[in-house]
Amino acid sequence: MISKKEHHTDTPLHLDEKDMGILRLLQQDAKMTIRDIAGQLNLSTTPVYERIRKMEQAGVIKQYAAIVDPRKIDKSLTVLCYITLKEHNKKCGKKFIQEILNFTEVTECLNISGEFDFMIKVQVKDMDEYREFYVNKLGELDNLSHTQSIFVISVIKATHQVVF
Amino acid sequence: MISKKEHHTDTPLHLDEKDMGILRLLQQDAKMTIRDIAGQLNLSTTPVYERIRKMEQAGVIKQYAAIVDPRKIDKSLTVLCYITLKEHNKKCGKKFIQEILNFTEVTECLNISGEFDFMIKVQVKDMDEYREFYVNKLGELDNLSHTQSIFVISVIKATHQVVF
DNA sequence: CTTAATTTGGAACAAATTTCTATTTTATTA
DNA sequence: TAATAAAATAGAAATTTGTTCCAAATTAAG
User: Fold this and answer.
1) I need a labelling partner for A83 at 20 to 30 A (CA). Which of A58, A97, B32, B86 fits?
2) Strand, helix or coil at B4?
3) Where is the HTH asnC-type domain positioned along the sequence (chains A, B) (predicted)?
């Protein structure tokens, strides 16, 4: 499709019902052909093509991704790990964030309200691999005050769908 | 690409380094051409094409998705809502799950260990819209015992990358 | 109502995917 | 170790899809 590593601008973009229709379809299946999208929305290929291009450039569409099933690649254990830092100044926060970004086991890191400062989602093979991560990677950070691990028993719903 | 709504089987599939290389690339950019992938991995198009097809059919690649930036479509508030049920028998659990699946605001629902039974991730416009969801949708379920809302202050990391 | 700006349809073109066949590589067995 | 079978690969041909172009239609502004 389009998206040849062109930098997306932050131009605001008003999305009408046709744009939303396109997003709805592409969220579910990014491999739909422009012709098929056009067919479903009763348009021709050109407007669909142009609208997708604009949404890519505006950053509405951030990425096209192949979604891999963790269970099929032996990364079946998901753990939510809650973290509080000892010190909360800017420098310490930046350092923590930088190190978290480098941990490939961490698929998500949220700065949150409440008792803890951060929630990280860790995707690993099994409990052994989690312990390895918890002790030798997370445990080596020097600004940690308190952590709590919550284990995911089953995934009921997981979607990227934010346009309806 | 491939993936013309063919049913994926659950055939186990051994993934070698070439498959992993393909997944690595497609996770980051599903629009990469087979030629480019082949170029980067020093292969020709056919093996890359066949390997992708096999991984689609085996369910390793679950989906190709356009990732939409929630901020660009006015869904900037993310809330983690923790839930315990009154009754935990199979029937009640199924009912709860069924209703959660229908809430478009809920992008994720995990059955978890610890104090609460479920964590749901809710993606909305603002606090008004969250209140609306919390009171009129979630609050209308009849099996809820206790809930807690944790608000996401900022997203540090969010990836779908599980192959490295 | 008239004009300007934007959006759209449909056809022509370029580029990608998909298929096919011959060849090479890997694995198996004698 | 050599011979054979099975699987994977390269390269080119066929097909499908993405992209561009321009004229027509629609919308917005004066």
Assistant:
1) B86
2) coil
3) 15-76
